């Protein structure tokens, strides 16, 4: 049988089968060996069709499907890199800037994907030029590839927002945050734990989450914090939790399309703006570059005095080589965070606020610090649960160290994941479970307890204000509702995630509010709120 297989026929068919098989195992939960089954089947079918090729002869023509195949290749690459493909993240990063990113491994992967796509396109072209039957149906294949591509579908949905009948539904739910001064205001420490979702606390993942579970016994733990659209990457999670709104990309409302954004969400007041007005001295510390995705511009434009990232912190390291692809390891970053809090405490000139974001849990494998390796033993370079356990332990260790040093008196501590994890080594296990973000509040007189509510990260903004003693009007800020107050329902409790996500695709009024100053004038006359 194998002797009769024509190499010039079965080989390009097998290449197409490899592409199809890889797509299937990337987008579904099929086992890895399914790839070879699909490729073998394609090769056999290609060889069986060899007799029909001779009837049609050779015709030099470019298939209609080449561009649709490239678009599918792009989608599979994004899905393989991040798990869920978020067009909002793609659009935002293209405009905010991707300078100094730490995804060097994805650049290598992109190169391999490009070479693979070139081979696949060549194989498809070879078959179309030699098989008259395939040539006849190939335009239909091109159409099918286009309409089935989630990228095209998503772009179509966003384009439909331009002509929607009601592009201001979410914007009418937006409430401008207003707070009143108080005596003896508390300090604030916000620890964002990169991708360290609460789902890691499930028994499936062993003891990876144990240190956060222990830390949560000292404060208020929130259950049911889901992820809505446009909050699923770092900048979106920060803006969602500090501004009370999902991050709607600037898109075509940006008036300088070929330049990076000069400001990030300048049209709304965020946590830093409110606290700066109350006399807070605010600092941001992160191990990655502040140039990436507009992070520095966001904090500098919203009330923060000190914005410290890789470029400013790396020279302070005892060992300048102790960095990873993205930036500083978390044990070094947390040492600098403790030093910054000591500096602010020593100055004694009003309350302070410090925001910090870790790197240890970053997809796909994480960046466990040296102190974790000394404590946890050897790391295989792939197991994300090792990195999760490291991140949880470092966060707990920092909080307890600051408590022991008396630096958290009269301080609210917020521990939260910035977003759900992207594609990691336990992706199939994560996606088979109900997924939730981590959120806990410690200190400032809060009684330890658990609160279970259907919420999203936008509800964190008014919840922080409430916990600090700055309750906003009606306990609302932005699109969020304080989770410490039961009298008002969150948007997810009232409408559900599906409706909120659908509205996010079409709400151009909220988009204009976020980017006011960089966009054409928003509509002043808005219709009354209707559900």
Question: Your description of this structure?
Answer:
This protein has 531 residues and is of the alpha/beta class. The chain has helices spanning 7-27, 34-48, 50-56, 66-82, 87-96, 104-130, 132-148, 150-160, 169-173, 210-216, 234-243, 271-277, 295-300, 310-313, 330-347, 370-376, 384-404, 427-431, 460-467, 491-495, 497-504, 508-514, and strands at 187-193, 220-226, 281-286, 306-308, 352-357, 411-417, 439-443, 449-456, 476-477, 480-481. It has 2 domains: 2-162, no CATH class; 184-514, Alkaline Phosphatase, subunit A, CATH 3.40.720. It is 46% helix and 10% strand. The protein has an 8-stranded mixed beta sheet, with helices on both faces. A hairpin with a 2-residue loop joins strand 9 (476-477) and strand 10. Helix 1 (7-27) runs antiparallel to helix 2 and helix 6 (104-130) runs antiparallel to helix 7 (132-148). The protein is globular. The relative contact order is 0.15.
Summary, kept brief:
One of its GO terms (molecular function) is transferase activity. The protein is of the alpha/beta class and 531 residues long.
Features:
10 strands; 8-stranded mixed β-sheet; 22 helices; transferase; globular; 2 domains; Alkaline Phosphatase, subunit A; cell membrane; 10% strand; disordered C terminus; OpgB/LTA_synthase_biosynth; Sulfatase_N; alpha/beta; two-stranded antiparallel sheet; disordered N terminus; 531 residues
């Amino acid at each position: 049988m194998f002797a009769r297989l024509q190499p010039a026929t079965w080989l390009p068919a097998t290449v197409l089968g490899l592409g199809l098989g890889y797509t299937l195992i990337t987008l579904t939960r099929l086992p890895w060996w399914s790839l070879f089954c699909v490729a073998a089947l394609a090769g056999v079918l290609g060889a069986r069709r060899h007799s029909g090729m001779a009837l049609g002869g050779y015709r030099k023509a470019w298939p209609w499907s080449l561009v649709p195949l490239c678009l599918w290749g792009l989608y599979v690459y994004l899905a393989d890199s991040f798990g869920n493909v978020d067009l909002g993240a793609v659009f935002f990063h293209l405009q905010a800037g991707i300078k100094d990113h730490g995804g060097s491994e994805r650049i290598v992967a992109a190169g391999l994907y490009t070479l693979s796509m070139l081979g696949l396109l060549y194989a498809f072209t070879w078959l179309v030029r030699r098989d008259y039957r395939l040539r006849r149906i190939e335009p239909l294949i091109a159409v099918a590839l286009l309409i089935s591509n989630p990228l095209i579908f998503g772009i179509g949905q966003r384009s439909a927002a331009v002509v929607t009948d009601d592009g201001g539904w979410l914007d009418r739910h937006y409430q401008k945050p207003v707070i009143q001064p108080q005596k003896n205001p508390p300090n604030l420490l916000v620890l964002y734990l990169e991708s360290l979702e609460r789902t890691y606390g499930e028994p499936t993942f062993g003891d990876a989450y144990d240190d956060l579970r222990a830390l949560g016994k000292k404060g208020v733990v929130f259950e049911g914090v889901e992820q809505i659209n446009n909050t699923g990457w770092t900048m979106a999670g920060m803006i969602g939790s500090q501004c009370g709104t999902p991050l709607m990309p600037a898109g075509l409302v940006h008036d300088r399309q070929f330049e990076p954004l000069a400001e990030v969400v300048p049209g709304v007041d965020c946590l830093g703006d409110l606290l700066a007005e109350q006399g807070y001295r605010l600092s941001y510390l992160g191990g990655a570059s502040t140039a990436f995705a507009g992070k520095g511009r966001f904090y500098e434009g919203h009330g923060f005095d000190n914005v410290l990232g890789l470029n400013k912190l790396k020279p302070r390291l005892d060992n300048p080589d102790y960095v990873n692809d993205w930036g500083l390891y978390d044990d070094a970053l947390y040492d600098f965070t403790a030093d910054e809090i000591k500096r602010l405490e020593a100055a004694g000139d009003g309350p302070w606020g410090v925001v910090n974001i870790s790197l240890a849990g970053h997809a796909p494998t994480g960046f466990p610090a040296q102190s974790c390796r000394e404590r946890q033993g050897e790391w295989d370079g792939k197991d994300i649960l090792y990195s999760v356990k490291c991140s949880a332990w470092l966060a707990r260790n920092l909080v307890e160290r600051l408590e022991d040093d008396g630096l958290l008196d009269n301080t609210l501590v917020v521990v939260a994941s910035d977003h759900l994890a992207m594609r990691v080594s336990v992706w199939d296990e994560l996606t088979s479970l109900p997924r939730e973000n981590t959120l806990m509040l410690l200190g400032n007189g809060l009684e330890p307890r658990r609160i279970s509510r259907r919420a999203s990260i936008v509800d964190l903004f008014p919840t922080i204000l409430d916990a600090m003693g700055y309750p906003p009007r009606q306990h609302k800020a932005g699109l969020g509702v304080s989770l410490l107050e039961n009298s008002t329902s969150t948007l997810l409790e009232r409408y559900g995630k599906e409706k909120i996500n659908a509205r996010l695709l079409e709400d151009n009024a909220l988009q204009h509010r976020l980017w006011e100053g960089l966009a054409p004038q928003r509509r002043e006359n808005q219709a009354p709120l209707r559900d």
